[in-house]
Each structure stands twice: as C-alpha cells, then as structure tokens.
Design goal:
Blueprint (H helix, E strand, L loop, with lengths): L5 H10 L1 H9 L18 H7 L2 E4 L13 H5 L2 H10 L3 E3 L4 E3 L1 E3 L2 E3 L8 E6 L6 H13 L3 E6 L8 H7 L11 E4 L17 E2 L2 H9 L22 E3 L3 E2 L5 E7 L17 H17 L3 E5 L20 H16 L3 E5 L4 H7 L6 E3 L4 H10 L3 H12 L7 E4 L6 E2 L13 E4 L2 E4 H16 L8 E3 L3 E3 L2 H8 L10 H19 L4 E5 H5 L52 H5 L5 H14 L6 E4 L8 E7 L6 E7 L5 E6 L6 E5 L4 E6 L4 E6 L4 E6 L6
Parallel strand pairs: 1-2, 1-22, 2-7, 7-13, 13-14, 14-15, 15-16, 16-22
Antiparallel strand pairs: 3-6, 4-5, 8-12, 9-10, 10-12, 11-12, 17-21, 18-19, 20-21, 23-24, 24-25, 25-30, 26-29, 27-28, 27-30
Helix pairs in contact: 1-7, 2-9, 9-10, 12-13, 12-14, 12-15, 15-16, 16-19
C-alpha cells in the first residue's frame, strides 16, 4: 500500500462537502442578509402558513417519460395541474444530491435511497441543476413551494470520509472515528476482500471501550441484523494516510455501515460547517423554502460510567438542532425534523430547533385504532401531545412515507418505561403497554394474517397505507381483490386522510397514497433486502400522470407497484375516486383554515371505535369537530362538548345541517362503518 498522491488528495478535497461549504461561507460572511430575520425561536405556524399540504415524492420510485429524468417528471406541467387541483401546496422531493461512496475516483451507488449524501451536486442519475430550478419555478407558478433535505447526522463514504481515513486536515474531526493503535489491531476483525469495513461484535466494542477508545455500545441498534449489524461500530482495513502512516480506524454509524456518523462536538467544528453549508446551498441554489433535518436526534454521544453510552435524549442534539434551525431561519427558510423520538425530545427540540416535527406521536396510534377498531390508545397519544406542551399545529400529520410504519414506541421504552398509564381499565407501566400495543399490531399487520407486509428488523413493519387497510379488513391475498374490496380500501384510506388533514398543522401524503399502491412481492426486490432492509417492498414505482403507461420499472430500477386507484388525471375525471374526494376534503381544510386552528378538546367517548377532535377555528369562524369511526360497526352517540358555544352543526364537506349543539354542550352523531365527518358549530352568539 502506497501513500496517496498529492493529485488524488487534491481531487478528493475538490469533491468534498466540507470544502464546498467553506467556499459557500465566503458568500455570507460580512454580508447583511443573514441579519434581517428572527431566528432564535421556532415558528411552526409561520412555516405551515407557507404550505400546509405536502406531496412527498421518492425519487427512486418516480416513473418518467421515456428518456426523461426524475426531475423532469416532478416538474411536468400535467403533474402540477393535477397536484394543484387536488390542493397540494408543497412538494418534498426527497434527497436529490449525489449519494453513495467513492472507491478511488469511482462513484459507488447509494445504499439508502440517497440518504448517504456525499456531495452538494444534484445526483446525475436524477437530473440536472437546471431541471431542479425549472421544478422550483413551476411549483411557484402553482402557488407551491419546494421542500428539500439536509442530513445532519451522517454522510456516505464519499470524499470527506476518504480524506478522514487518510488523516487529512480537519476531515477526521467530521466523524465519530478513532484511530486504533497498531498494538491493538489484533482486537479488530479482518475486513473481507472487496469490502471497506467490518461490523464489530458487542464483545469487541466492550473491549475497545475498556481500553478507552470509544464510548461503547449505544442505547439501541437501529437496523439490527444478526451477522450484518450487531453494533453501531465498524472498523476499516489498513489505510495509508497522507503522511505515509498506515492506520486502522473504528467509526460510529447509527444507520448502515456506509453511513458514518458526524461528530457535532469536535474542536474543528467541521460537521457544523459542512451541514450549514449544505442547508444554505439548498435554500439559495435549489430554491427550497423548507428543509427536512433527517435523523437529527443523534447528534450527541457520551460515555457513561455504567451501562450503554448516552445516545438518546442527549442535550447536544437539542443544541445542534437550535444551531441548524436558527441558521436556516436566518437565511429565510424553515425546517422540520423527521425522527422517531420520545415526546420529551420532540418538545425540547421544538423550542429553538426545527419549526415542525413529523407526527410520530400519533402515527402508529391511528394505525392501531384502525387495526383494532378501538381508539383508546390513539386518544391517549393525542392527549400526551398536549400534556408535553406540543402544539398539534407544529406537527406534520402524514400518511405513508418512504420509511416503515415504526412500532418502536420509544417514548414508552426509554424515559417513560416505568411511568403508569391507564388503558382499557387497567394501569400499565410504559414498557408493558408498549409491548402490548406492538404485539397487537404485529399480529394483525404481518405474518400469517398479512404475509404481503414484512417486519422491518426491530423497528416496525414495511407496508403501504393500502396494505395496512387490507390487513385491517382481514384480506390475506392481494391478487384476488374485487372491485368491492378496492372500494372499501379507498373508503378507509379517505378516513385516514381525514384524521390527518382535519387537524392543525401540515398534512402530508405520498405518491403511493395518491395511486393506492400495494407492496411489491418480496422476490422482486430480494436483491435490495440482503441486509435485512425490507422497506423496499413498499417503495414500488408509480406513474402519477401516465408519463409512460407501458413502463414496468422506474429509472431508479424499482418495479412498478400495483395501483388500485389509477393515475391522477383519470381519478380527477371521476367524482367518486380517491383523488376527487381528497380534493373535497382539502378544499374544506383550506376554506376554514383548519391548518391554523387550535385543538381544544379530545373528549371521552362511549363507542370504542369513535374518535372526536375539537378545534377552535381562526378569525372567529366558530368551532370545528372531526368525528371518525375507526370500526366496522355503525354507531350512534351523544357527544359531550363542554365549553363549546351552542348553535347549528353543519357538515362542511357535504354542506348540510346535521342538527344543533345544545346549551348543555350535547350533540348526537351517527356514523356508518369507517365514516368520517367534518362538522362546524355555527355559534348563534357570533356576529
């Protein structure tokens, strides 16, 4: 092995994100523009006022015109005509920048759907910077904004990591990586030929901790897979540095082996430079108004005297989020965080960090309500949101996204394992309640009852919204769905859309939702699941506006999923379609500005399948009531709504009077199975 040449080192520097960020910083330093906006406090309602209905795309799954790029497809006029008609106000493209790794000067492909970023440049397999600019312009022409990503917790193994392995300049300070002394190399496993790392077993991690190299095992192993990823630590082979010295490193990766974790408290502050530079590039070059902070809760890792290292609910994550969220607001943007955290952490990070947070609080809970026909756990979680001081208007209430349906329920596993909760007439510790809910959901959602859905390591279940519904309906075979089955699936899909859309904050849905996608048969993506990542079954390709009806695979090499509802132009021609009925729901949401409302009550109910949410509408528009039946039974119930002014009750979607709310705050509601109603109380005391 020879010392790297100066020419190769300089080539790597020129490709690196840290270098690009340092160059970009010169455009802002000493200039006035970053002093014109408030930045210290999160402003969730200002963020959702820009765009409160989002379409979340997944680049690898986009079917394009023949010979066209993903960015051309996302900027297609026909698509934007359809999205605008439905009521979409923002497009979250998903990560678009070059990702994967480098071997020498050869780029290797992404291992995690472009969440292993290695450059600020647009991934050439997705399109060009000019095409992205065109997408931003057409979105603006349809009164919508572009939403992009920054990934503050890790990178791919690109130029930055290769320079770190070579001990070049500040680059080792980017990562949680430690040089192992040569006399301790016998502790480390050999790296197989053709590989550039090897995962460490728990006993080796413990030995390295005891020899004061690393902090040791973390509180949980995300993507745990025996023989593949048993800890969050891997070792490199021998790498010759720029000084000619051979080294072996051990590095942290919360996620996959090819996603080395960034060090947010190294004296170089290299990670902060790089990530803030990436965010500013997204705002000023890409044209994004809102940025996702992906995996933003993993910025702090600390050794403890006993037990596993402190890696959850660490104060450095809060500080790091405040730093990044503040920098984005200074530059004129907003941000949101998408990580399954405890409610405490979501509350802490909301004070000065990201402006919005993905609603991982109630997402598994509303799916539990559907699977069991019982809303008690959902009501518990909605109330927990308020108890921890979280404004529901600061949350992104979503249907399917690119990840699994997470069933970690970390709130009840870590900080609140021994707190007690009243559920179904009994008192449970948090950890026991967690296991009960998980067992119920796993039993109904996967395995023998629904073999088309697959467990995703220890985190949850890989499934589409449609296949959650088929599991709830007891449908075991997807190949034999009837027209009646599809109509029932669509009906329940709209119920779930109502739950998310008829709340304050942001409502988000995916292309898989819009077409009613089913999971792919596992054998079609078996080559992508060798490391245990079953999420590929729910990332099937889709064609929203018939750009290439004959295509069976996307440009990202994803097989086309079966779509139950059809393309958007076809759906918008049919008043009874999913898209057309969603359009009605979103029109009401916009007309009454429900995104800006205040959630004031989650009342107790008698029927187990009933959920009621009460909202105070802005601008004196009265009180809005969302009533949803998550069960297969019709129900009639008299609601008790204390403190709500009496008056006529109007169905604001179907535009009919349903009755009157009495002086005593009573109103009788009738719901068919899986039916939802959006009601407004027109108080007689209002002008």
């Amino acid at each position: 092995m020879s010392k790297p040449t100066p020419e190769h080192v300089q080539w790597l520097v020129d490709q690196s994100m840290l270098h690009a960020a340092q160059q970009r910083a010169t455009l802002y330093s000493g200039q006035a523009r970053l002093w014109q906006r408030p930045f210290a406090q999160a402003r969730p309602r200002d963020a959702s006022a820009i765009a409160s209905v989002w379409f979340t795309a997944y680049p690898a799954s986009i079917i394009t015109r023949e010979g066209g790029s993903v960015l051309q497809a996302l900027g297609d006029e026909a698509l934007w005509h359809a999205l605008s008609e439905i009521g979409i106000q923002g497009i979250h493209n998903g990560p678009l920048k070059r990702s994967g790794g480098l071997q020498g000067t050869n780029y290797t492909p992404t291992i995690d759907g472009n969440f292993d970023r290695i450059s600020f440049d647009i991934d050439p397999s997705l399109g060009t910077e000019a095409e992205l600019s065109a997408l931003s312009r057409i979105a603006a022409a349809h009164n919508a904004v572009v939403i992009e990503d920054t990934i503050p917790s890790h990178t791919g193994k690109g130029a930055d990591f290769r320079l770190a392995e070579m001990a070049y300049g500040q680059y080792p300070g980017l990562y949680h990586m430690v040089e192992i002394k040569e006399e301790d190399w016998p502790l480390l496993p050999d790296v197989a030929a053709g590989r550039d790392a090897c995962n460490l077993t728990p006993d080796v991690v413990d030995q390295l901790r005891d020899r004061h190299y690393i902090v040791g095992q973390l509180q949980r192993v995300i993507f745990f897979e025996p023989g593949v990823k048993e800890t969050d630590w891997s070792t490199t082979p021998v790498v010759v540095g720029v000084d000619g010295k051979p080294r072996r490193w051990v590095y942290l990766h919360y996620f996959k082996e090819g996603q080395p974790s960034l060090n947010w408290l190294d004296p170089s502050f290299a990670a902060q430079q790089m990530i803030i530079g990436d965010a500013l590039h997204a705002i000023d070059v890409v044209g994004a108004r809102i940025l996702r902070l992906d995996a933003n809760g993993f910025l702090g890792v600390e050794r403890r005297p006993e037990g596993n290292a402190w890696s959850e609910s660490h104060p450095l994550s809060v500080v790091g989020n405040q730093l990044l969220g503040g920098a984005i607001r200074k530059a004129g943007g907003f941000s949101f965080q998408e990580l399954n955290l405890t409610i405490d952490d979501i509350a802490s990070m909301s004070h000065g960090g990201a402006d919005l947070s993905y609603d991982f609080i109630t997402r598994p809970a509303y799916q539990h309500a559907l699977l069991t026909g019982n809303t008690e756990f959902l009501r518990l979680m909605l109330r927990q949101t308020h108890q921890f001081g979280i404004d529901p208007a600061s949350l992104i209430h979503a249907l399917q996204n690119h990840d699994e349906l997470t069933l970690e329920l970390v709130h009840f596993w870590t900080l609140h394992a021994h707190d007690t909760y009243l559920y179904q007439g009994q008192t449970f510790p948090g950890n026991i309640l967690r296991e009960h809910i998980r067992e119920e959901m796993y039993e109904r959602l996967a395995g023998e009852h629904a073999p088309y859905n697959l467990k995703f390591v220890t985190n949850g279940v890989s499934c589409t919204t449609a296949s959650i519904i088929t599991a709830a309906l007891g449908i075991r075979e997807l190949d034999s769905l009837t027209a009646e089955d599809i109509a029932r699936i669509q009906h329940i899909h709209l119920l779930l859309a109502m739950y998310n859309a008829m709340q304050p904050g942001v409502f988000a849905l995916s292309g898989w939702d819009l077409v009613g996608a089913l999971p792919l048969p596992a054998e079609q993506v078996a080559h992508l699941m060798a490391d245990g990542d079953t999420r590929w079954i729910h990332r099937g390709a889709y064609d929203l506006v018939d750009l290439d009806p004959s295509a069976e695979i996307s440009t990202g090499q994803m097989p086309k999923a079966r779509a139950l509802y059809g393309s958007l132009p076809d759906q918008l021609q049919r008043p009874d379609s999913f898209a057309s009925q969603l359009k009605k729901i979103l029109a009401v949401r916009r007309a009454y500005d429900i995104a800006a409302s205040k959630q004031i009550l989650i009342p107790d109910v008698q029927h187990p399948g009933l959920l009621v949410m009460v909202h105070e509408l802005p601008a004196g528009k009265g009180t809005q009531i969302t009533a949803l039946n998550f069960s297969a039974e019709p129900l009639v119930e008299t609601l008790q709504l204390p403190g709500v002014a009496p008056g006529p009750v109007v169905d604001i979607i179907n535009e009919r009077v349903e009755g009157d709310l009495t002086e005593q705050g009573e109103f009788t509601i009738t719901l068919d199975p899986y039916e939802g109603l959006a009601l407004r109380v027109v108080s007689t005391s209002l002008p």
